[in-house]
Every structure is written in C-alpha cells, then in structure tokens.
Design a protein that fits this description.
Shape: extended
Number of strands: 23
Oligomer: single chain
Helix content: 40-55%
Distance between the termini: 111 Å
Strand order of the largest sheet: 2-1-5-4-3
Radius of gyration: 37 Å
C-alpha cells in the first residue's frame, strides 16, 4: 500500500507537496517540480513563499499560519508564482493539515494546479467586458449627440411647418406643407429606429402601462401611411373586429409603432392593389393583427433574414427601397415584450401577410365597444358600393355588427339596378359610394341617383381616399351627396354619419370639410397673462418658441444662454421657465440647479433633442418638473401650458401668410416670410440678428482656421449652417456645412480654401436680404 501511495504521489499529474509546519517544503512530486522549474533537491527546505509574488507571499504566510494554528481547516488560494526561468504564472493551492494518531498536526499536504492559462482567459474576458461597457457608453453618448444634432433642425422644420399650416393656404400650398411635414416625420422615425435598436441591444427597452382605445391607436397608425398609400393608387382597408375589446391597458405608443412599421413596409413594397390591416381575437386571450398586401412577396430563403438587424430581402431590394433594416427587428422585440409573437406568410409575386400577436389587459369594467350605435341602426338597409371586395367586407363587418341589412355592389350599374329594384318600398335608407369606381365614378353615380326621383330619397355618403376629398370641391357645390367620409373607414365616424342620415332630414355637413377646432383654453376673465421665460441659444428656435407662446396669450421673455436665464429668473417672477439643455456659458441642467438653490419655484421645463432616459433622470435630479422633447409641436406646448398654467393661456388664430414664391438659392424671401407667419417685423428682427451675428462668425472662423483650432471652426460653421438654413439661405448654409465637415475632420488646409466661398456667399446674402 505504501508503494502504491508513493507512486500516486510521484506520478500524479497534479502538483503535490508535503510541507513542514513552518512552511518549508519537505517533498515535491514531479508535476510540482515541472511547474516551478526546480528539482526536488533544490526545493527541499525552502519556504514556499519564496517562490510566490511578493504581493501574494505575505497573505499566504498569514493564511498558512491560520491553518497551522487550527483557525482554518483548509487553505484555498489562487497565488502568483515565479518559475526558475523568471516567468510568472498562477497556482491554485489547496492545503490541509496531516495529523498523527494522537491528533497533533505533523505536516501540511498541498495540491497545486497551474491555472495560468485559465487566469489569462479570465483576464482577457474582464478586459473584453470593460471594453464592451466602454464601447456601450461611447455608443450611447454618440447616439445622444447624434440625436441632438439631427433633432434640432427637425424641430425647426416641424415647428415652422406647423405654424405655416395654421395660416391661410391654398390647396397646392397645403399639399407642399403636408409633404414637408411627412418628410420630417420619416426622418424622425429613422432616428427613433436607431435609438430603439440601441435600447434593445442594451436590454433597456421598457413598456409603459396606460389606458387607451384600440380604435384610436389603429386610426393614428393608419393616418401616418394613408396619404402615401392613396398617392400610389393603393386601396387601404382597415377592420377592427367588433368582437375585439377596444378599451385596453398597455403601451399604445409601442403598439402603434409595430403597426406603422408593418404598414409602411406594405406601402413601400406594393406598387398596385391593396393593403389590409385587421385586428381580431386570437387563441388564449391574445389579440392578432394582420397586415396583408399585394406587393412583391418574399421567398422562403429571404424570410429567414427578415427579422435580423440591418437585413432586408436582398441587396437589390435595399438599393431600390431603402430603409435601415431595423424596423422588423424592433417590431419583433416589441411584440415579444407584449407577450406575443411575430411572423410572415408570403410567396414571391403574390404579396405578403405580416402578423403579430400581443396580450393586452382589458380596462376594468369597460364595455366591449363603447359608443356603439346599438339598436339605433337595427334593421337599417345600407347599400355598399365599392369595386374593392375587401373594402366592402370591412364596411359590411361594421354594419352587420350594428344590426344593419347590407347589400353590396361592385360598380355603378349594379348599384343603380339594386336601388331601382328596391324603389317600391324605398328600403335603402343609405348608400355608401366609393368615389373611385371603375367606369362611372362615384360622382356620376350620385348624379344619376339624384336625377331619378324613384330612388333619390336614399341618403348618399361619398367615400374619398384620404387626402383627395378636397380635389373636387366644385362638384360638392352640386349638393348631390349628403355626407362625406375618408377612406379607410373609421367605425366611429361611420356610425355618426349613419345615425345622422337615419335620424335627420336636413342637409349633412361633410365630415371631411368640417374645420378643425383649435385647442382653446380660454384665459380666465381678468387673469393676468402668464409670464414665461425661454432660454434657447438657437436664434430661430428661440423665435419659434416665442411666437408659439405669445399666440397662446403668454408674456414671453427670452434669453440666449443659461447664465442670462439664471439672472432673469432670480431678478423677476415667472410662471413657467423653458430651459434648453445644451447652451453655452451655463447649460440647462446647471442653470436649473442654481435656480432651485436660489429659491426659484416656477416649474422648469427641459428642452432637448435627446431622448435618452438617463438625460430625463438628470433633469429630474436637477430640479426640473417636465421634459419637452424636440422637435415639439404646438399641441405639445399647449399640453404643458394646460398642465402648469390652467386657465391662463389661450390658442389664437394666426395671421395670413404671404404666398410662397419660387425658392431662391441666396435667400428665399417668400419662404422666410411664410416661416415667420407673414409677419415682416419678425422677419426683419431675425435678419438683423442674423447679420449682426454673421459679422462676428466670419472673423471667428477665419481666426480659428489660422490658429489651427479645427474644433472652433466646426462649432462656428455648425451654428452658421443651422441659422442660415432656417432663414432659407440655402447657398450660405451649404458653404457653412462644407466648412463644418472640414473642421470636424481636422482638415484645416481645406477649411482655409473653403473660406473665400463662404465669405462670397455671405456677401451675396447681405446684398439680397438687407435687415430692416
């Protein structure tokens, strides 16, 4: 047995040693000798700590003493050691006492394993983790900066477009303004996609929980794509099954985001035919949404990549249709967060059906479908005239759920035939007529019905594609039609029109032609105007905020940085204070902290193009009350005013703008005037301030280029670029953009070469657009 134990000790692949109670080596097996690079004779009588790294040796001695004195039963440590050749490594040492028959400690038995490679891997892993964390922080900061840089001009475009749309515009001008608004929304959605993907990667995407009406969320999603769909000649059909509960609890914004993504893709990849969106009950309490199109379709091989980041069907599709390739990845993550799934059914050339399911909580005590007309339409005979079968099915689905008797017709001739066949008992109370019928269109059909006294008692509702209802305003003067609805049909609007048709004999107003009521909160009689302070370093954005607030009846004071805002807030009382977060001299966060420390009690509203959650948390900690993300709309500002200044502001009509002229490269005066709501005094003030600032910026850029300060060149050119663009000075803005790019890249020689072009553009601008 002793021979066997001796062989096990000497031949074990694991290092073994016997140590005396003072820590000196008595025996070492071959594995330990090879590990340390010494023979057993060289090791004998040497203290083990002599072979350890000095930082580890003292700790080992202390631990070994505790083992010897019985304060520990075993010793387990990872220790750095040195080999005979001077190389270092890691030793995992496990030691325990060997006692004699009487229980007295005699020796220490130790096992040693070389874990150098494992430790190296662990070290590399820690480095990789730190690098990943640093990369994540860097990426988050980059995304925050990128978001701010992109959202700032989007904010200006959106705000000015909204003000422009509030003015008196003809149909063509309204269309142009709508296209500008649409383009900024698309750009904003791209920015949001990138930020959402970043949150998903970091595991920071969280859902809100709020009460909402599913019908409203569906309509909002469809409204974002309906104009483009109808512009392409596509039929857009929407149907929310009446068996689906509509008063739900969850995250309406993220639910809408999934639908908008699927609808936008359907519009993008469909050149002819139709797009259908349906909501219906699914298994196990889930809701199922399907978006079906008649587009190009997707092959089985391509479907495998659809829900992967930065992927589309193939490279040619990417070039033709564009997009980030992130939308479906985000949609999948959102559906999974809602307890559902997402998928696609498709064949090339036969269209696609994208679907997703979700689990949403029903609001306690809520009706299945509130505002349903119920018995009021029971038995009402309705004729649905539409050449699209899916559109007829959707209308029938709503009507039959309300108890109506429905008959369908696919074109004008069959509709007239059905009406005349029922003329004896005048059974058809209402006819829903699609404006774009093949052959004789909706207007021609309405004319035929009005001329035929046997059937002209039927109330007629014309269905027009969204955005096209005002095209034939002259036809409306004929008063052949009793009411108008936009397609795709919205159930609540449809119910309201039907009830009016059935219950009223007077002429109905067009739902589409009814003017939008402004959001009005009347000031209390005798109440003083609310005093509002706005701190914003961007000249045009500052003026935009001032105009919006003054139109709401506020008295507005503006400052250009946080230091001026702090001085104003501590010198005079304000009811509300708006602070841009990124300002020179004193940023918004620090200004808020100092205001609170100096006793300013007015609500503080942060303004920023960043949407990162940590920035909102910083605002809260700095003492701010709310957050206004850029780009903001008039409704966003009014919501804050209503929250903090209830009864002390109002929405007023805006003056007419001058007609927009042809755009100019040097200075488009008509566009600039329209952006200022036709107010020449406002434009004159902006031009005066811009030209004065320009006198400072050009020498500053020239001096920075000469002194080698590329960052200063970038900053000054960036500020000039944005201000010139907002004043519709395209040439000057483009030259500043080129200079900004050179400064950002550190190409000072190129910046110096570009300076004369910038100065020449500035000279032409001064000659074309004098202040005053």
């Amino acid at each position: 047995m002793e021979t066997l134990v001796g062989a096990l000790f000497s031949q074990s692949p694991v290092g073994m040693a016997l140590l005396q109670l003072d820590g000196r080596l008595r025996r070492a097996n071959t594995a330990l000798q090879d590990m340390l690079g010494y023979t057993e004779q060289e090791l004998a009588g040497k203290h083990l700590s002599l072979h350890l790294h000095p930082e580890d040796a003292s700790g080992f001695v202390e631990e070994f003493q505790g083992l010897r004195e019985g304060r520990a039963s075993t010793l387990e440590e990872d220790l750095r050691f040195y080999r005979k050749n001077g190389q270092s490594g890691w030793l995992r040492l496990t030691a325990s006492l060997l006692r004699d028959a009487s229980g007295r400690p005699r020796l220490v038995f130790a096992l040693g394993k070389d874990v150098t490679r494992w430790k190296h891997s662990e070290h590399q892993m820690r480095l990789a983790m730190r690098q990943a964390e640093e990369t994540s922080r860097t990426k988050s900061q980059f995304l925050a900066n990128m978001s701010h840089e992109i959202r700032t001009p989007i904010h200006t475009i959106t705000g000015m477009t909204e003000l422009l749309q509030d003015t008196s515009l003809d149909a063509e001008q309204k269309e142009y303004a709508g296209q500008i608004r649409f383009a900024t929304e698309v750009l904003l959605s791209l920015v949001n996609d990138v930020l959402d993907f970043s949150k998903i990667e970091a595991g920071r995407l969280q859902l809100e929980k709020a009460d909402f009406d599913l019908r409203v969320v569906v309509e909002e999603a469809v409204d974002l794509v309906s104009l483009e769909a109808h512009r392409r000649g596509l039929e857009l059909v929407v149907f929310v099954d009446p068996r689906v509960p509509v008063l739900l609890r969850g995250d309406p914004g993220r639910l809408r985001q999934i639908m908008v993504n699927l609808l936008s893709n359907a519009v993008k990849f469909t050149s002819a035919g139709e797009i259908q969106l349906t909501f219906e009950p699914a298994e196990a309490g889930e809701l199922a949404c399907r978006v079906r199109d008649t587009g190009i379709g997707v092959s089985e091989q391509q479907r495998a990549n659809l829900f992967r980041a930065f992927s589309q069907a193939d490279a040619s599709t990417t070039r033709r249709y564009g997009g980030t390739g992130l939308g479906l990845v985000i949609a999948r993550s959102l559906a999974e967060l809602m307890g559902g799934r997402i998928g696609v059914e498709s064949e090339p050339g036969k269209g696609s059906t994208f679907w997703f399911t979700c689990r949403l909580e029903r609001q306690p005590g809520a009706e299945l479908w509130p505002d349903s007309p119920g018995e009021l339409l029971e038995g009402t005979a309705v004729l649905v005239v539409d050449d699209n079968a899916a559109a007829r099915r959707a209308a029938r689905g709503y009507l039959e759920a309300w108890g109506c008797r429905v008959q369908e017709a696919g074109e004008a001739a069959s509709a007239l035939q059905a009406l005349r066949a029922a003329a004896a008992d005048k059974s058809f109370r209402v006819a829903l007529i699609d404006q774009r019928l093949p052959g004789a269109d909706g207007w021609q059909l309405a004319g035929e019905i009005n001329r035929d006294t046997a059937i002209n008692a039927t109330r007629l509702v014309l269905l027009s594609p969204a955005g096209l209802g005002g095209v034939e305003a002259k036809m409306r003067l004929l008063r052949w039609v009793d009411a108008y609805l936009s397609k795709p049909l919205k159930p609540r609007e449809l119910a309201a029109v039907l009830l009016a048709c059935v219950g009223a004999a007077t002429e109905l107003e067009s739902v589409e032609e009814q003017p939008e009521e402004p959001d009005v909160v009347e000031a209390q009689p005798g109440a003083p105007a609310a005093r509002v302070l706005v701190a914003e370093d961007h000249e045009v954005n500052r003026e935009l905020a001032r105009v919006l607030l003054e139109r709401c009846g506020c008295e507005v004071v503006t400052t250009v940085d946080g230091a001026e805002a702090l001085q104003a807030a501590t010198a005079s009382a304000f009811d509300l204070i708006f602070l841009d977060l990124q300002m020179p001299n004193l940023n918004g966060l620090e200004a808020a902290r100092r205001m609170r420390s100096q006793g300013v009690r007015a609500p503080l509203i942060a303004m920023s193009a960043s949407v990162l959650s940590q920035e909102r948390e910083q605002c809260r900690k700095a003492g701010m009350n709310d957050f206004l993300p850029k780009p903001f709309r008039k409704s966003d500002v009014q919501e804050l005013l209503a929250r903090y200044l209830a009864g002390r502001f109002r929405a007023e009509a805006t003056p007419e703008s001058a007609a927009a002229g042809e755009p100019g490269r040097v200075f488009d005066q008509q566009q600039a005037l329209a952006a200022c709501l036709g107010d020449r005094a406002v434009l004159a003030r902006l031009l005066g301030a811009f030209l004065a600032k320009l006198q400072e910026q050009l020498p500053a850029i020239r001096g920075a280029a000469r002194s080698g300060d590329a960052e200063k060149v970038r900053q000054e050119a960036h500020a000039l670029k944005g201000a010139a663009l907002n004043l519709h000075a395209a040439e000057l803005s483009e030259q500043a953009a080129a200079l900004e790019a050179a400064g950002k890249a550190g190409r000072l020689a190129e910046a110096s070469a570009l300076l004369p072009r910038l100065e020449e553009a500035a000279r032409r601008f001064r000659e074309t657009a004098p202040a005053g």
